[in-house]
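Tutorial sheet, problem 5. The three components below are modelled jointly, 707 residues in total.
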Amino acid sequence: MIYDFLLQLTGNAAISSLINSIIPLTFIIPFALFAVYLERKVSAHMQDRLGPMRVGWHGWLQSFADILKLLQKEDIVTADADKKLFNFAPVLVFAGSYAAFAAIPFSSAYIGTNLDLGLLYIVAVTSLVVAGILMAGWGSNNKYSLLGAVRSAAQIVSYEIPTTLVIVTVIVMTGTLNLHKLSTDQTSSFYNWLIFGGYAAGWHKFALIPSMFVGFLVIFISTLAEVNRTPFDIPEAESELVAGYHTEYSGMKFAMFFLAEYANMFAVSAIVATIFFGGFQSPFGYLGNTLGISWLRPIEEFFWFASKGIFFVFVQMWLRWTLPRLRVDQLMAMCWKYLIPIAVVNLIIVALIMVL
Amino acid sequence: MTYYTVSFYLFAAIILLSAYFVVTTKNVIYAAFNLLLTFFGVAGFYALLGADFIAIVQLIVYVGGILILLLFGVMLTNKITDTEIKTGAFQVLPASIIVGMFSGVLIASMTNNRWIVSANTPVAADTLRTIGNILMNQYILIFEVLGVLLLIALIGAASIARK
Amino acid sequence: MTTYFKNIYTALYTLFVGMKITFKHLFVPSVTIQYPEVKLPMADRIRNRLYVNMDDCIGCDQCARACPVSCISIETVKSMPTEDLGKTSQGKKKALWVTKFDIDIAKCCFCQLCVFPCPTECIYMTDAYEFSEFERSGLNYSFVTLNADEIAEKKSNFAKMEAEKAAAKAAPKPPKAEEPASKPAGDA
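Model answer (structure tokens):
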């Protein structure tokens, strides 16, 4: 654990906690820069375009150029905006999405806090994002912002239910909500990942596989809706609402919303990867183990964790350029008529299998 | 001063200040967002007391559910912020008598009660499992009755909304 | 109930069909052309910037007269009888010094009407289309091959010749006094 190492190094709990809590930020910011670039490249190539090509080799410095541009931009606060709420909203949104990283295990050597209720904690702190979005929508004093914020909040509140139901399914199976324990339990090979029935013994394992696939699909769809990505991007619907709740924001405040969005994308991808795809576990085995280098293993684990997370972020982008946006009624029908009943039935099936 | 005491007084200050603003502010939206801070501070208290499950449920239910619904109601109501909110003092004498009596009861119970001070009682390692066991064994009847009550409330709300 | 499950099936099936298509397109070569580095070939009859081949120009002024927006301005000076201006590539004899041949491409409407009347086919449209300028005056192209000294010389030569002619006409006097002296100058 990095925290223990820091505690030894500094000898002060407060300082080591502070450093420990900043570590995810050193991952999120480069990740956001990379994800913006990836998004532009993926979208471009899916539409047979090239995307950014000018700044650096194949435009790889494009995100840095964007950040430089955003830093130079004027920080516009509209005259009729509610200035306190307007200025505080981006902070709250980013704080909410950053707080989720406290319980995500990046590797066996690093987890912000080894919470027993990690999964539930993530669901809880995401509600701060909703409050922040509503604050942004109201503070902007703009009807498009307000509509976007209200839509966003309705969507996130609704889609929390299927997410939580799938999480309950996972509790029924594993008996833990600790993400670190969840990851360490799915050890040794991809055969032990929860999507392949986990480490249950005998016929239970094979009986669980279909339910696990259903659970994976449900939680992937509902978390996609929670981060307001296409096809569930009605809060930001460009063609209807300009940009939704961040219409009035410019410069670094806009950048904070963007950072929060990409941090959220990675957080939900990491949760899906941790629950169903073994978290930081390698699918094959570790080079560090075979070579006998003990410090190599955590680095490898981080590599697998980051690649799984980025793969699901890529799938989110892939879906974005495949599907058109849903209507509001379709969105709600999808949640209440399809995802929730399926998740409930799935929960009952898993519970029955586990009892038998 | 340990970090524990520092965070305790921090959360206490957050709760008191935000609760004060909830009561005194004339802007409904500000009141709602200050309520968010109050809930957050209370969740922090629960976390400090080692009741991590209660803290998280506090966040999920109050911040994620009730407060969002409250904000929804405020935002979807036409021009609610323009209406005059009366926060003047009415019935000062009876109110102060009742408040004085109530605070007297509170202070008396606070000073006379023998609080169980046990800073070194180990917090249950797996609160979720403990709570689950208690709910499903000891209080199973109450738990089920509460579930039925909530179901009735749900059905009632749906049937009223359909009319 | 059947429609319910049918909906789920259609949703998943169409989702995977769509994802397959977009994934294929991820590897389709892009249609974007990296413009300043790569340029599309232009059609043969493309109408872009005008060019005048001054070796062939005989200064006939027909293009300037054809231009609907008057973007071409030409001035010519008669050559001395002793001077040989050479021939055009089609064998036509040149007789005029072209002292000014300006095309204001900012005014040009790319109608190509100036190209058809040219008897020597020396004015034509090229495929050059990147000629933006910071100053509008930069779009005024001059095609004259003579430099300023030469132009002044030709003009003074012509003026001298005119003066000599006028003097020659004025000196004998007797034959025809009523001949107007300004007539030869009318072709400028």
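Marking note: Helices of chain C lie at 2-25, 62-66, 148-170. Full credit if you identified this.
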